[in-house]
What we know:
The chain contains two helices and four strands. The protein is α+β, with helices and mostly antiparallel strands and about 80 residues long.
Amino acid sequence: MSYATLMVWVNVDHVSKQLVSIASGLADKLAAKLLGLSALAIMPPFVADGVVIVDNATEFDIAKMKASLAEADTSFSRRS
């Protein structure tokens, strides 16, 4: 049996070497490409009694999230 693609969740805060290794071995066994999936949520604004409690993420916050995702991608790519 073979699959075209196998997808594995990659935690942005800590890319698990063991999880990626197992997923990579399984992908090899099933003749599949390995795809790492990760995401971060941007906090939406919160309004209470007409007052904005939490404002939208700043450009700096978004840039920091993108950098974290890129770092996880690099780590995943080295391990898979």
